[in-house]
């Protein structure tokens, strides 16, 4: 797999994030595929930020260990990442800032500070010079960077655009002049009519929610889902939705339950701590049978934990969240394509089953970037159909008699017709108390049992009609090793499988997206062969392994668990298998 | 025309003599007078003796969790802002468990009517102290008398931006009907704090107590003066007097007024957004 990794690092607050994203788009605009991610502390200024972009001709799923180009905007970047360099790597630095004495490192000085001084330019323009320099070592046409500058800075006026172009040119020319032999052998991007879009998992969630006709999004800012709130708020007026940044997560989910009761598809987003505050209301949604989609982006806990890093430590919490017994569906996207499609699907499931649906992801999916096919996204959007199940504003659309409407009417599939408030001649209450068929409160044992049984039937109906078994990638029959995983680990596992294949080692992956409830019989069939199954999770308890055992009796003994706040890298999977590459 | 009967659900289970009877009757009469039917009002009930009105009042309704009625009401209003939204809550419910929501609902000038049954005790859990109880009030949870000062919902509402602040007394149903009507008709956040004697668990704030301490605002009371309203609202705290009537009312844009996307149609009635292509440019 031919690929290059470009990484930039510097002090927080100096535009590293924008620069990284722009560099990714410079690559995709030429037809390359990318996978990138950023690291940043829970600070606004003074910490250390990095952004790395993995670039390839074919679809990429994750980053890699070896850095090909390291752009150091400070000494810390070099010190932190020199272990990932080889003599083939190129390091850009400014000797006015710090010296690199190691003879095994290809260190290329760029006159960053001097140029800023000569041109009287602000400090963040250093980034632009380094992109120009990077274009030169990649042998990429500089006009692609200049077009990107026009897009990024166009709104700020011609002067800003032209000084940025000048900085880019200076960086490019300096490399061509001083280091003419330092460049990577070109690998051509494929010609295609498609466009590679660059977006984060949060962007894909936002688009998926709009495709799914989400009309109300409520949230309280919390990493790693804050950028869904800001993205949806940016879209709200244009697309005709309402975004409420409420006072706390309890208000967030109850706002959504109010609007969902009144007929609009509603969603909330949060992370573990905010979700903890929502759980009482999750249970309320369960008994009152109000559809809601909850986006839970995980980060390392407990409590405040490591706010800007990644983990999959909230799966069992999500599955078991809420007091009492009620049906709930948990879906876990592992990449952009699964994110937008499962999100849109979550809105259909919430409506069909009139119960909460949790879309669980992790910071690595939420905030990392990938390239994704524009054609495929548009095709999905076009083919998606809003299915509200038994929710309707008029009786002609409801499987119920007009004369005797009962909100919680018994149904063999557990799903009662839900009348959207407003139809003349009718009324009902959605009740957090146990209730009889028409919604009135009850404490009678017979009514209680009937309603519990009715709600429980939804799970059976879901497993029969909408549960999806795991995706199987590769051929289990011929595999030496079978990985079992969920969520963002998919990317690194797929890339590891590709590398292993190149050295003749056959592996496969059982990737789960529909995590709860699990269909025991269907899943037992998937695991019928005696194989070396390895559970890969980004937590210390092997939570999905526990869930799998609880729901299906399948026990995966061998586990590769990582819980240092970082995602699993493809090299770590290969190292674990002790295979020499 | 609708009738009281149309709004009447089950027979109330409130204690004989409870102030909630008066509030329930006044609310139904107000809705009939305003020519609403159970099919075109949205109601949220909190949890407590007040929230138990869920089974006694017919409407499109949510019987919510303790403390959470206001955010439910806000969500309902955002979805269908063409209908009145009423929250039936208690003082422990709305000022204790849901206190944070109360402050922020005032700030947002959400066009909802909040009817608070203020009896200074938790009746449904058999008589513990509530946030509006006077200092020293002895209850099951404060046998030595409550240490904290009473919360003043009126000053809180004024200071946080509520645009309609009123107080009623459960013992004066005809006045209560008029007050509730005005509150529902007001565009913006409206508070009706109703002094409601709990005959079972509160032996201090009785009907007699309020007959002595509550008084009607003068006919010519200027409801538009913020500073005067603040002073008036402070009276329960400063001089143990309880003004009755509309203390403060100003016209300001409501939360949904401020949303251009809701100008033509309600959020529920709007067409689905389908022009995804128009959003994709920035990802290239």
UniProtKB/TrEMBL annotation, chain A:
Residues 13-173 form the Pyruvate/ketoisovalerate oxidoreductase catalytic domain. Residues 208-453 form the Pyruvate flavodoxin/ferredoxin oxidoreductase pyrimidine binding domain. Keywords: Oxidoreductase. GO terms for molecular function: oxidoreductase activity, acting on the aldehyde or oxo group of donors. InterPro entries: 2-oxoacid/accept_OxRdtase_asu, Pyruvate:ferred/Flavod_OxRd, Pyrv/ketoisovalerate_OxRed_cat, Pyrv_Fd/Flavodoxin_OxRdtase_N, Pyrv_flavodox_OxRed_cen, THDP-binding, Transketo_C/PFOR_II. One of its GO terms (biological process) is response to oxidative stress. It holds the Pfam family POR_N. This is 2-oxoacid:ferredoxin oxidoreductase subunit alpha. It comes from Candidatus Roizmanbacteria bacterium RIFCSPHIGHO2_02_FULL_37_24.
TrEMBL record, chain B:
Residues 48-194 form the Thiamine pyrophosphate enzyme TPP-binding domain. Pfam families: PFO_beta_C (PF12367), TPP_enzyme_C (PF02775). GO terms for biological process: cellular respiration. GO terms for molecular function: iron-sulfur cluster binding; metal ion binding; oxidoreductase activity, acting on the aldehyde or oxo group of donors, iron-sulfur protein as acceptor; thiamine pyrophosphate binding. Residues 198-264 form the Pyruvate ferredoxin oxidoreductase beta subunit C-terminal domain. The keyword Cell wall biogenesis/degradation does not apply. Its cofactor is thiamine diphosphate; Mg(2+); [4Fe-4S] cluster. Keywords: Iron, Iron-sulfur, Magnesium, Metal-binding, Oxidoreductase, Thiamine pyrophosphate. SUPFAM superfamilies: Thiamin diphosphate-binding fold (THDP-binding). PANTHER family: 2-OXOGLUTARATE OXIDOREDUCTASE SUBUNIT KORB (PTHR48084:SF4), 2-OXOGLUTARATE OXIDOREDUCTASE SUBUNIT KORB-RELATED (PTHR48084). This is 2-oxoacid ferredoxin oxidoreductase.
